Amino acid sequence: MTVRKVGGSLRLPAPDRLLSARTGYTRETWLAVADHLLDSMMPWFSAGAAQVRLPGRGSWSGATCDGLEGFARSFLLAAFRIAADEGRGCEPLIERYARGLVAGADPDHPEAWPRLTPCSQQMVEAAAIAVALHESRAWLWDQLDPAEQQKVVDWLSGFVGSRTWDNNWRLFQVVGEQFLASVGAPYSKDDIEGGLERIEDWYVGDGWYTDGDGQNYDYYIGWAMHLYPALWTRMAAATPGTEYEDRLKVYRERLHRFLEDAVHLVGSDGAPVHHGRSLCYRMAAVAPYWTGALLDATPLAPGATRRLCSGVLRHFVDHGVPDGRGLLSLGWHHKFLPTTQPYSGPGSPYWASKGFLGLLLPADHPVWTDREAALPGDEGDQVRAMAAPGFLVHSTHHDGVVRLLNHGSDHASPGKPGEPEPAADPHYDRLAYSNHTAPEAAPIASRNRIDNHVAIVGADGTTSHRGSINRIGAGGSYASSWSHAWLPDRGPWRIETASVVHGAWEIRCVLVDGPGGVVIRHGGYALAAEQRPDAVTGGSGRPWAHVIRADGLASAVVGLHGYDGAAVWRDLDANAFGPHSATPYLVREVHPGGPLVLVSAVILSGDTVWPVAMAESVEVAVDGLRVDVEFADGAGAVVRLGAVADGPRCLVRTAGGQEEVVVDGGGNPAAAGETA
Q1: Does 676 reside within a domain?
Q2: I want to staple 507 with a disulfide (CB 3.0 to 4.6 A). Which of 348, 395, 500, 588 is the partner?
Q3: How many helices (H) and strands (E) does the chain have?
């Protein structure tokens, strides 16, 4: 087999452009990356193999639990790797993890794992171990002697009758106890049924769940809320007497529908959207696509599934993941701790193992043998309104850029009545995200709230934050929402934002019902890179700011109505994409008090951006709370802000002159094909 070196010590098979014309990656590539990740962890195993003590910042759970995490999450990858070749050639891998498993489960061993207690981090890792044991059962579990098996059963039995956090954690208990059932150990049917019934409360339609109560839409929907029920069905099928067929049918239908949306969250270059928490799990983002193939529950052709998943893997490999030591760091393309959460330790990134789920598909499965097939974003620009999570996604195929306009996911904690809502994470409270940019996440930059945010700025420079997102509507090329904004000494005020997309452009219409005399600031996408991005500002009646990276990616904002200034904010070590970051923004220097309408164009593009031409080519007319927009190609939109009792809230006109009401006055998407 021909190999090629790709940074550090990673060696990959030569690209196969006949089978995989777009990525060059094949099943052998996935096996090579899996082997490299597993081999690179060997120096970090403890003497008894129950701990993988990786270098890096520890989590709030402590060093012992971090070591368990390193073992459990890499064991999941090992299980997929063992199953891929039915154990052949995997004897050292099997021996290492079997030895560590028995040592960790033995309460008298020096490397004994903490017992499972309610809501403990051990529950997360125990679920990984349960899944790994099931998927590698013939080659590992079945080879343990009865006494060794009993030690593992005793440890996993901490799930039975216990309590978890009321979100995706409910599913850890489900798979943990289903494994116990599958090996004839005591378990609680009520625990399993209760967990599966609880996620029904979180199903919101169109294939989407929320991760617990609230508006928690992120990668956990794919790599947890869809993944674990699917894995449970595989365990249940191996447990005599377990009824699972009815649930499997429901899970397959939901996953199929979810993937119709989720396919739009990865760019034509393989870069996934940078949004939400736990982004250091990286390749885990492809878990639901593999799951769709595993359950025969996907709208994608087999070759399209591999093309998408391999595209994501190649994106990270091409950007230095894993690092030169063969390890996965706490970050995105490289280590960047502000992107992480305090629950993440050095073993946390190995949830990337979920992204290798496709290795459970045999070598002769069409997902591996069919030629790569095109995805929607490979063949043209895409616009997708996702009403369930409140997303409006638009992508451009020539530059691979995907933009997620966020009108529904806030991951917010409810505030006390009459008091300011707590500030949300920058990975949730921004107006937009993309697959080539990240929010400014370092503490000071996060508090400044410039990128993709509309802020009321007090006299002391304090900025308001975006409160809980209240949806207005989403459909076609439009989405809108409103939130409360506070300053430390006063508020709240209502800020409404409506987005209309046209190619790479977003027209943002903002209604700020704020106090007189304050500054209103509105930012675009933050660009970050190893080199300092270039920046320029200009305009008088229509101010603009433009930032460009060395690779040609450009971010710009153009004031189309109501703004009187523009500038660029620069920061250092604030962004996951590089040490130097720059954000273009617009200002209204003095809010007159009462309702104020502001309109801007927000652009993120790998193509050349001409802010002056943009300012000259878009016609905007504002009449009260009505905004009329007309583009140079004849397309346009009418957006009505504020209270709209009847009639269209948004009417979109195509370049051919056809008009369509995409959201009616009640804030609901109009019936398909309804015209004005």
Answers
A1: no
A2: 500
A3: 16, 26
Q: DSSP letter at 55?
A: S
Lowest mean per-residue pLDDT among 5-9, 261-265, 641-645: 5-9
Residues 121 and 42 in one domain: yes
What is the residue range of 291's domain? 3-8+23-369
Report the alpha-carbon distance of residue 134 to residue 180 in Å, rounded: 10
Q: What are the helix (H) ranges across 412-471?
A: 443-448
Q: Take residue 52 and report the two structure tokens written for it.
A: 């993988």
Exposed/middle/buried for 359, CB within 10 Å: 0-12, 13-18, 19+?
buried
Boundary-marking domain end, from 591, 612, 633: 612
- Structure tokens given for 557: 């904002």
Beta bridge partners of 660: 652
Residue 126 lies in a domain: yes
Cα Rg of the chain (Å, integer)? 25
Q: Is the pLDDT of residue 672 over 70?
A: no
Domain boundary among 559, 582, 612: 612
Estimate to the nearest angstrom the gap between the alpha carbon of 537 and the chain centroid: 32
Burial of 116-149, coded b for 16+ CB within 10 Å and e otherwise, reads beeebbbbbbbbbbbbbbbbbbebbbeebeeebb
Q: In the prediction, which pLDDT does 120 show?
A: 97
Residue positions counted in the chain? 676
Q: Is residue 660 part of a domain?
A: no
- Per the listing, tokens 């959201």 go with 663
- Start-to-end CA span in the chain (Å): 62
Rounded Cα–Cα distance for residues 118 and 111 (Å): 21
Q: How far apart are CA 585 and CA 601, in angstroms?
A: 11
Together in a domain, 130 and 168:
yes
Strand partners of residue 329: none
CATH number for the domain harbouring residue 544: 2.70.98.70
Whether residues 336 and 436 share a domain: the answer is no
Distance, CA of 436 to CA of 422 (rounded, Å): 28
Within-domain flag for 340: yes
pLDDT value of residue 657: 80
Q: How many domains does the chain have?
A: 2
**162-199 per-position pLDDT tens digit:** 999 999 999 999 999 999 999 999 999 999 999 999 99
